């Protein structure tokens, strides 16, 4: 095999491995950010549910969750926010890429895929 072709193949293979490693690192980091955000939010919701009930908990999601998201964003460098296909607040409207990802998640969920198994 020509040395140039071999070098190109090896370079391509190493690039593919590097991309896979980078993607796996991003998945691990994103799960850590989600866990941090979710842990703080859950703690706040538990406190409010015990003292004020479910009606008060709605306020936590509306008022405190964005504050937690801002803190986690600042501390991790990740953008933490709320996006949904059905929005009540126009500020939560997904951009084109976010919409495609959310639609894909919804399609996979509807087909029976376990959300806990998603990358």
Class inferred from helices and paired strands = mainly alpha
Shape: globular
SSE arrangement, N to C:
HHH
Counting DSSP H or I runs of 4 or more residues, the number of helices is 3
Kindly report how far apart the N and C termini lie: 38 Å
Portion of residues in helices?
over 70%
Low-confidence stretches: none
Descriptive key words:
mainly alpha, 119 residues
Protein described:
The chain has 119 residues and is mainly alpha-helical. It has three helices and no strands. Helix 1 runs antiparallel to helix 2. The longest helix is centred in the N-terminal third of the chain and has 50 residues, at 3-52. The protein is globular and about 45 Å long.
List the helices and strands and how they pair.
Blueprint: H1 3-52, H2 54-76, H3 96-110
Helix pairs in contact: 1-2
In short:
It contains three helices and no strands. The protein has helices at residues 3-52, 54-76, 96-110.
